[in-house]
Fold each of these.
Amino acid sequence: MIISLLNSIEFQNPGIFNVEGAAAIVFYFTLYSFMGWLLENSYSFFTKRVFFKPNFLWGPFKPMYGFAPILLVYLIPANTHLAVVAVLCFFIPTIVEYVSGALLQKLFNRQWWDYSDTPMQLHGHICLPFSLCWGVLAIICVQWIHPALTAFYGAIAPFWAWIWAVAGLYFLADLALATRRHSLKDLITDESSNPIQ
């Protein structure tokens, strides 16, 4: 099943599994993750008057917002009926959000967001009102934002070819540092709550 899915992605997006395809994915991931960071912090500012919301990574990037659009643009074939696009734009970001929240809670015993007080929520990781918002944003992304970013990428691709590996290494380093930081925080919390007698 996974092989057929990968073959389908390759058929719809020829060249995705080569160096140029990897460079494009890193480019889109970087921009979408940064836009997600701006979106979340702007929402935090307008609702709580605090711009800098706690972030898993050190840098100004929200990986969940990088993964969801990439999955959408590479999984949705061209000329897909708008109703199917709308359904995928609802479910793919919702699944990414749920898996992200569940993994972060499982690995670090902490929730970076909690929808427990929101109607129609599941384990505090997802809720219907925000899933509907993500669906609308995803449709806007697929229909208008991504085509503009694709044109922009086409213009800067020769320059990006020289630096994309550095961007990829940056994300790996940031992930390693963030994992260490949050793991140590959990260790310190455990030790302070359970002092050795």
Note: Helices lie at 2-12, 19-48, 63-75, 82-108, 128-193.
Amino acid sequence: MNAASVTPSDLTITPRDRRFVDKVRPARWWNGGDPVATALYNALSATFPKGEAFFVESVRDFRHDAPPKLSDEIKAFTTQEVIHSREHAAFNRAALDAGYRLQSLEDRVEWRLGLVRNRPPIASLAATMALEHFTAILAHELLADPRHLADAEPEAAALWRWHATEEIEHKGVAYDTWLHATRQWPRGKRWKVKAKVMMLVTRNFLVDRTRGALELLRQDGITGPRAWARLVWFMWVRPGMMRKIFSAWAAFFLPGFHPWNEDDRHLIRDYEAGEDSAFGSAKKVRRAA
């Protein structure tokens, strides 16, 4: 590569084969009884089964000549993403059971992905590289600030925290695959392409997730300026996740950027410590029963 990967040499990408909402089905407004918070997270979840399958395809296309370490990371990335797709498919079925109709959101995702699939494989990899950075910084914010899911139903919150943890863990895989695939490109060309792709991905992400959330709010009878005002406030003001990730998003455009320039594995360790504690508490409850 003529651009350096800074992925930690001791990083281990560990697929955690967990199951969540098949145990306890979330209520209609599972996120703190708030239709707006629920709508945005449901709109995100509606993208994951098809979107993460696309990520897997895009990265695996370049595994054949990848260095051994990167090849192993691609394999682990693939396993994690397949499990994410399975669990969000189950989560989406729970939303359907709660009365939401997700077909228009899923059709929008399929349409977007179809546009990229009609281009050379490097275009799919570039889109994946940009989207993986987007999901990683959202995941970081979700875990760094417990208030985002503080009032969510426990099983749904557990799903989102687990997903966020693994997004951080594999956040460098698509980027390192991109560096390897474009290793013969001049630095200027690589930067121009990745910057253009990130701007396009950002526009589409914001437009489509806003559109999807508004559609779900419409299904709850919340429409017009009221729906827009409540959604914009939630996304950009309080809790304002979109506002809070801006600096991490902007870092993507800096010379020498790499997702692991910020080593946030402490969030993974905190998650795992919390999971161990919760598991121990559950065993004590079962023994007492």
Note: The mean pLDDT is 93.
Amino acid sequence: MEVRGSVSVGGYARGGKRGEGSYGEVFSAQEETTGHARALKRVRMEKEKEGFPLTALREIALLRRLRHPHIVSLIDVAVGPRPDRVFLVFEYCDHDLASLLDSSPSPPFSEGEVKRLLLQLLDAVAFMHEQWVLHRDIKMSNLLYSHGSLKLCDLGLAREFGTPLVPYTPKVVTLWYRAPELLLGAKTYSSAIDLWACGGIMGELLLHAPILPGRNEREQLLLTYELLGSPNETIWPGYSSLPHLALFSIPHQPYNNISQRFPSLSSAGRELLNSLLTYDPDKRPSAREAIKHDYFRERPIPKCVDAMPSEPWEGTAASAAPGRRSEEPAGRSYREQAKR
């Protein structure tokens, strides 16, 4: 489906607000001419002294390029009666995975269903990387879910990359899914940061809890070392010269504890998770390589899309739009409990 171009936002009956983040508010809506459900993401204009925000221009340009079954589709760019009322119009999805997991007292997906979700995510990430685009903010709340299909959304932080790599800011990716090379101030980074985030997603779906829920960068590294063991020059060449290493004083921990943390996971599953969470970014698999892993060929086999749950959790207040929200909701969720 092609983006139709700029239209009046008056053609959409706006519903309730579904989320808010750094790059705009998100509302549910109905397209009046077709009756289709849509999501409207209002572009933040308050800080723009001149012209249209560069972040929004980048996101529009990338979404026009990246047409894929598991990347949320941009339908329109809608304008309001005032210059500061500009909305990106997206396909509507029923839930986001963060809200689904928050609202479920027990693991909402079986292992076969988790495998299908992971394959869909990895397929979207592989496609982005093959188009030379980094997502840079893969997290649960940026994964939409509707009728068995996962959609990767929110490309506000996405950037094109190439070879040789050029420096980008390391302050990307929500903390719980941020690769160690970013935490330690690597001057350049690659598509491997998205694969680390996919490892965090895999663990969280299986465990029904975030696996590395740090409250700050030091604690994030501490939790990483506790789970995987401390890195060194042998397993991660160049580790000792990373710029921010001297900022953190973290006790040495020699053991990998993936098996203890995931006792029911098969050896193939542990192997895939360990590979995604490999310290050396050059040794992480590509998304396309991860798709071919034996874990997805052993029982339980990935659930067919048609057999995936469509409305599995009645009463959930899950967001249904491509917005960004904090990974630290107040009070009630398992995410908050996991940090205590």
Note: Confidence is low (pLDDT under 50) at residues 314-332, 336-340.
Amino acid sequence: MLDGMTPEELRNCCLDMNGAYEDTPFPGNPGLVTCKVEGKVFAFVPQDAEPPTVSLKCDPELAVQLRAAHPAIAPGWHLDKRHWNTVTLDGSLPERMVRELIEDSYDLVVAGLPRAVRLRLDRG
């Protein structure tokens, strides 16, 4: 399992981002946790997926390259496939890469926030 990365470690990695919090906004699917910053989702983490998965926002050009290079990275499941990838934590990707993908997703979402909010998050 990804050099030891457990679902809990995945969750903690997402929540370690500045200003990040988790939410369960889908009453019909309480097992789908979202990780958000300023009300914007940067990660979807299904709690019952086996092996664990996480869906992350990604630059469209990079998303295509990642999918071509790594079988564990697929177009975002039930998401805009141009901007989202679903990453399966089957042990084939280094933990560091998964952490970087989470950070990239967070950064893409933060980049779309108002300047004052971005500055506050940068200082936090």
Note: The chain is about 35% helix and 25% strand.
